[in-house]
Design goal:
The complex is a heterodimer. By secondary structure, chain A is mainly alpha-helical. Among the domains of chain A are: about 260 residues, no CATH class; about 40 residues, no CATH class; about 70 residues. Helix content of chain A is about 70%, strand content about 5%. Chain A has a two-stranded antiparallel sheet with strand order 1-2. A two-stranded antiparallel ribbon of chain A has the order 3-4. Chain A is globular and about 115 Å long. The longest helix of chain B is centred in the C-terminal third of the chain and has 29 residues. Classes of the chains: A mainly alpha, B mainly alpha.
Chain lengths: ~650, ~100
C-alpha cells in the first residue's frame, strides 16, 4: 500500500506539470488552476493517508522504495529511491498541505493572467521537485530535486519576464543559489569518493563508525553547509531572497513557506549525524544563524515595501532554524520550520490580497487605515504577525521559538582549542532578535491597518482566496500545541514522532527562561504600539531615502527613526548599522552582479560570433548551390544525344574504374 | 563450318557497338538513330551468341531471340513516335529540335 502511494505523491504534481506545460495555450486558462490544485490536493491527501498509516503502526525501519537504477557504475550504486521516515513524512505533509492551500489561493489570484498554464505548470513542478528532494533516500537523487527547485524558482521569480528588473532578480537568485549548489556538489563528490556511496543511511553509518578522517569530514560539512546557506538565504548569500519578491505573490508564499528555502534546513536536519561529528562547523552554523537573524530583523525594520518586510522576516526566521541546527536540536529547527510555513504562507497570502485590494500599492506608508475596510484581512494578518512574533500561549510561533531559545541557553558551542562559546551569548542575541521581530512585524501591521486611510480600497476578496487564509490562520494558532515546554504541559508529540529514541531534554529549563521568551514579544508589541500604533504615534512618516536609488534604507534612516526612542546610540545602533551594511553591500551580491555582467558580455560576443559564422556559412552555401544548380541545369538540355553521350561516358568511367581497381 | 573464335566475335561486337554508339552520338536524324540502336543491340546479341557457342549452351541463342524481339518492339515504338510527330505537325526528323525537357 505505502509502496504504491509514495511514488504517487510525487507523480501527481509532476503529471500535472507535464500536462500544463505541454498544453500551454491549448488548455483554457480557467482549467489550468483547478487542474494544478487538484493534483497538489491529491498529493496532500496521499500524504495524509501515509501519515495515518505510518503513525498508526510505526514501522521499525524507514520504508524504502527503489524506483529504478539510475546508472550502473562499478562500486557505486546510483538509484532513484525514495524513503519514508518521520522526517520526510513531516516534510511532505508541510509541502503538500501548504502547497495545496497556496495553489487554491492562486486560482483566483492568477485568473486574469494570460499565462496561467505556464504559472501553474511551474508551481506544480516546484512542488514535485521539492517532494523528490525530501523523499529521496540517496543524496544524488536529492540533488535532482535540489536543482529542480532552483530551476523552478528561476522560472517563477522571472515569471513576468517582460520587466527587466524581474529577470534580473530571477538571475540573481539563480546565480547565488547556484554558487551554493556547486559547493554542495563538491561536498557530495568528496563524500562519494570517501565512502563509495551516496545512500543516506549507509553514509551516516560510515560517519558514525569513523570511516572518514576528521579533516575531509570537516571539508564535507563545510561544503554542504555552504550549499544549505545559499539555498536558505543566510549570510553571506542572503541578498537573493528579498529580490525574489519580483515573482507573483503565491510564488513568494511557496518559496518562503513550503519549498526552496526550507531545503537547506532539511538537508542539514537529514544529515545531522554528519554535522554532529564536526562541532566547529556546528558552531559556525549557529553563529551565522544568529548574525543572520539579527541582520535580517534590522533590515526588515526599515523597509517600506510590504513584501520585502516579509522576505527579510523569512531570512530572519531561517536564521533561528540555523541556530537550532547549530545547537544540535534539529527537531526544534523542524518544528519552527513547520510553524513558520504556516504563518509565513498566511502572511504572504494576506499581503497579496491586501496589495490587490489597494491597487497594487506595495509601499506600506501609502496604505493605512485598512482595518475598517478589510477587517477579515486584518484579522488574518494579525494572526500571522502574532505567530511570527511568537506572542505567548495563543500562537504556534511561541512554542517553536521557545523550544529553540531554551535549548540554546543550555548549549555550549566548542570553537576549537578547548575554547567554547557560551550558549548564553547566542541566547541573548536571539532574544534581541525576537524583540526586533515583534517590533518590525507590528510596525508593519500598525502602519498598514491603523491611522488615517491613504488609498482607495476597491473590490472584495473572493471566497476562494479567503478559505486558504482561514485554514492557515487556524494552523498558525493551533499548530504549536503538539509540542510544549514542560513548565506548561508535558506535551512532546512532535519530537517523539521525529526521533522516538532521543527525546529532547526539557526538564531542567528554569521557569524564568520561559518567562523571558514570553515577555520579550509583549515588550516588542508595546514599543511598536507606542511608536507606530497609538492615537498619536511617535513615527508616522516614511523613512527618508538617501541619495542613490538602491540604497533607500541605510544606517542614517535607522538613526533618524530611532532618535526619539530610548536606546543609547553607541550601544545599539553601531552594531545594527554594521549588520545593515553587511546586508546591503555584501560580496556575493557584487559577485553576482559582476558575474552577470560578464555573462552578458560573453553572450553578446558569442552571439556576434555565431551571427557572423552563420552569415558566412550561409552565403557560401548559397553560392555553391547556385553555381552547382547552373552547372547541373546545363546538363539537362533536353537533347537525347547528349543524354546518350552522358550514359556512354558514365559507362566508360564505371568500366574503367572496375578494370583499374 | 568453322566457328568464329570467341575473341574475334568479341572484337566484331565491339566494332559494331562502337559504330552504333557513334551513330547515335553523331547523327541527328531520328531514323538513323533508331538504326544505330539496332546495331548496338545486335552487337550485344552477337556477344551472347559467341558465349553460347563457346560454352555449348543454348541459353545464348534464347537470349538472341529475346533481343530480336526487343529490337523489333523498340523499332516499332520509335517509328510510331516519328509518325506521331508527323501527325502533330512537326515533320522533322532532327532529334535536337525536340528538347522541350531541357532544364
Amino acid at each position: 500500500m505505502t509502496e504504491l502511494l509514495l511514488p504517487l505523491t510525487v507523480l501527481a504534481p509532476l503529471a500535472a506539470a507535464v500536462i500544463l506545460f505541454l498544453s500551454a495555450g491549448r488548455l483554457p486558462a480557467r482549467q489550468a488552476g483547478p487542474l494544478a490544485t487538484a493534483a497538489v490536493g491529491l498529493s496532500a491527501i496521499i500524504s495524509t493517508l501515509l501519515a495515518v498509516i505510518v503513525l498508526s503502526a510505526p514501522p521499525s525501519a524507514p520504508i524504502r522504495i527503489t524506483l529504478w537504477n539510475w546508472m550502473t557504475l562499478p562500486g557505486f550504486p546510483a538509484e532513484i529511491a525514495f524513503a519514508l521516515d518521520p522526517l520526510s513524512l513531516l516534510m511532505i505533509l508541510i509541502v503538500t498541505i501548504v502547497g495545496f492551500l497556496i495553489h487554491l489561493y492562486a486560482i483566483r489570484y492568477m485568473q486574469n493572467d494570460p499565462d496561467t498554464a505556464r504559472f501553474f505548470g511551474s508551481m506544480t513542478l516546484f512542488v514535485a521537485a521539492m517532494l523528490v528532494l525530501v523523499l529521496s533516500s540517496d543524496l544524488l537523487c536529492l540533488f535532482i530535486g535540489w536543482e529542480g527547485v532552483g530551476l523552478c524558482s528561476w522560472l517563477l521569480i522571472g515569471f513576468w519576464y517582460t520587466d527587466p528588473a524581474n529577470t534580473a532578480a530571477a538571475r540573481k537568485a539563480f546565480l547565488i543559489t547556484r554558487t551554493g549548489d556547486a559547493a554542495l556538489l563538491c561536498g557530495l563528490l568528496l563524500l562519494a569518493t570517501r565512502t563509495g556511496t551516496l545512500r543516506i543511511d549507509t553514509l551516516l553509518q560510515a560517519v558514525t563508525s569513523g570511516q572518514i578522517p576528521p579533516a575531509p569530514l570537516t571539508a564535507v560539512a563545510l561544503l554542504l553547509l555552504t550549499g544549505a546557506l545559499a539555498k536558505s538565504a543566510q549570510i553571506p548569500f542572503q541578498s537573493w531572497l528579498p529580490d525574489a519578491m519580483a515573482g507573483p505573490t503565491p510564488t513568494s508564499a511557496l518559496i518562503h513557506a513550503a519549498t526552496m528555502v526550507t531545503a537547506g534546513i532539511y538537508l542539514i536536519a537529514r544529515l545531522h549525524v554528519l554535522f554532529a561529528a564536526t562541532p566547529a562547523v556546528m558552531t559556525l552554523m549557529a553563529v551565522i544563524g544568529t548574525l543572520t537573524l539579527l541582520m535580517a530583523a534590522c533590515n526588515a525594520l526599515v523597509q517600506t515595501d510590504l513584501k520585502r518586510i516579509l522576505a527579510w522576516s523569512t531570512v530572519s526566521q531561517l536564521g533561528y532554524m540555523f541556530l537550532a541546527l547549530g545547537t544540535g536540536i534539529w527537531q526544534a529547527a523542524l518544528f519552527h520550520l513547520m510553524t513558520h510555513a504556516f504563518f509565513k504562507a498566511l502572511l504572504f497570502l494576506t499581503a497579496g490580497a491586501i496589495i490587490e485590494r489597494v491597487r497594487h500599492e506595495r509601499n506600506i506608508f501609502h496604505m493605512g487605515g485598512l482595518l475598517r475596510a478589510t477587517p477579515g484581512l486584518a484579522a488574518a494578518f494579525l494572526t500571522g504577525a502574532a505567530a511570527l512574533a511568537g506572542l505567548p500561549l495563543i500562537t504556534a510561533g511561541f512554542y517553536s521559538k521557545e523550544l529553540i531559545l531554551s535549548s540554546v541557553w543550555q548549549a555550549t558551542f566548542p570553537v576549537g582549542g578547548g575554547l567554547a562559546l557560551s550558549g548564553h551569548v547566542l541566547w541573548s542575541l536571539a532574544l534581541a532578535g525576537a524583540f526586533l521581530t515583534t517590533l518590525y512585524i507590528f510596525r508593519c501591521f500598525f502602519i498598514v491597518f491603523s491611522g488615517p486611510p491613504q488609498t482607495e480600497i476597491s473590490g472584495t476578496t473572493p471566497r476562494l482566496m479567503t478559505i486558504p487564509l482561514a485554514c492557515l490562520s487556524l494552523l498558525s494558532l493551533l499548530g504549536g500545541i503538539v509540542e510544549m515546554p514542560d513548565t506548561l504541559a508535558p506535551v512532546h508529540l512532535f519530537t517523539r514522532m521525529l526521533d522516538p529514541s532521543h527525546p529532547l531534554p526539557h526538564t531542567s529549563d528554569p521557569a524564568w527562561l520561559l518567562l523571558a521568551g514570553a515577555l520579550t514579544p509583549i515588550a516588542g508589541l508595546a514599543l511598536a504600539w507606542t511608536l507606530w500604533g497609538s492615537a498619536n504615534p511617535v513615527i508616522r512618516e516614511a523613512p527618508v531615502p538617501t541619495p542613490g536609488a538602491h540604497r533607500v534604507l541605510t544606517a542614517r534612516t535607522v538613526e533618524s527613526r530611532w532618535r526619539p526612542g530610548i536606546v543609547p546610540d553607541a550601544l545599539f545602533l553601531r552594531p545594527l548599522r554594521i549588520l545593515n551594511r553587511i546586508g546591503r553591500y555584501d560580496l556575493p551580491d557584487r559577485l553576482s552582479d559582476s558575474i552577470s555582467r560578464a555573462l552578458c558580455r560573453a553572450s553578446t560576443l558569442a552571439a556576434q560570433t555565431r551571427t557572423s559564422l552563420i552569415a558566412h556559412l550561409s552565403s557560401r552555401t548559397l553560392r555553391i548551390t547556385r553555381e552547382g544548380s547552373l552547372l547541373l541545369g546545363r546538363m539537362q538540355n533536353g537533347r537525347v544525344r547528349w543524354y546518350a553521350a552522358w550514359i556512354a561516358t558514365g559507362l566508360c568511367a564505371t568500366l574503367a574504374a572496375a578494370m583499374l581497381a | 563450318m568453322t566457328a568464329l573464335p570467341p575473341g574475334d566475335a568479341l572484337l566484331l561486337a565491339v566494332i559494331l557497338f562502337s559504330t552504333g554508339l557513334a551513330g547515335i552520338l553523331i547523327r541527328r536524324n531520328l531514323l538513323f538513330m533508331l538504326m544505330s540502336i539496332d546495331i548496338m543491340l545486335n552487337a550485344a546479341a552477337l556477344v551472347f551468341i559467341a558465349a553460347g557457342a563457346k560454352w555449348h549452351d543454348a541459353t545464348g541463342q534464347v537470349m538472341f531471340l529475346m533481343i530480336l524481339a526487343l529490337a523489333a518492339t523498340e523499332t516499332a515504338a520509335g517509328l510510331a513516335i516519328i509518325l506521331r510527330l508527323h501527325a502533330r505537325g512537326r515533320p522533322s526528323l532532327d532529334a535536337d529540335t525536340g528538347n522541350l525537357l531541357r532544364g
